[in-house]
Amino acid sequence: MPLGLLSDCHRRIERFLETLVLTAERAAGGPLEEGARADLRAALAYFRHAAPMHTADEEQSLFPRLRASTHAEAVDAAATLERLERDHDAADEHHRAVDALVQRWLADNRLVDADLAELGRRLAALQAIYGAHIAVEDRELFPAAGRVLSPADLAAIGREMAGRRRP
Predict the structure, then answer these.
(1) What is the crossing angle of helices 78-108 and 113-136, to 10°?
(2) Longest C-alpha distance within the chain, in Å?
(3) pLDDT of 1 over the 90 cut
(4) Which contacts of 17-21 are long-range, i.e. CB under 8 A and separated by 24 or more positions?
(5) Which of 20, 95, 111, 165 could make an S-S bridge to 116, C-beta 3.0–4.6 Å?
């Protein structure tokens, strides 16, 4: 079921974000051991490649179908959908900055204090955005979508999601 897959993706987002946060805290901008370097690269790759597909799954497949529904729950969700799309935009901006800072860290094997502070601010902002965003989707939006959308709509969303992941 595509809604379950979207929730599963949220767990990966949380895990990779936690990897970034914990690695930044532990290494404190200093030299990186190979394991930490690999963890940072994996997290950056996830947010650069897989996370945009998740956003597309929502914005191109799920949200339009909810907007097209005349069901009361879907109509009530309209403002929530707009807020969630703004969250995506804000998260994208923070991810671009985090990517640049971590790439610099990987290249130089050190982050200056100002960059480390900026990385910490960006990661904290992402934690706040994702914490609220994921809670709304997992607890409210996805269950409502499961009640509102037809089996044919859900199957179409699943096919579109799979198509985004084909090589």
Answers:
(1) 150
(2) 56
(3) no
(4) 17/43, 17/123, 17/126, 17/127, 17/130, 19/43, 20/98, 20/102, 20/123, 21/123, 21/127
(5) 111
Which DSSP letter does residue 1 get?
-
Contact 116, 28 (CB under 8 A): yes
Nearest CA-CA partner of 12 in 35, 36, 37, 45: 45
Query: What band does 110 get if pLDDT is binned at 50, 70 and 90?
Result: very high
Q: Residue 31 to residues 45, 105, 106: CA-CA distances in angstroms?
A: 21, 8, 9
- Residue bearing tokens 């179908």: 65
Percent of the chain at pLDDT exceeding 70: 100
Domains and CATH numbers, the chain: 2-164 (1.20.120.520)
23 and 39 Cβ atoms separated by less than 8 Å:
yes
The secondary structure of 60-103 as a DSSP string is IIIHHHHHH--SHHHHHTHHHHHHHHHHHHHHHHHHHHHHHHHH
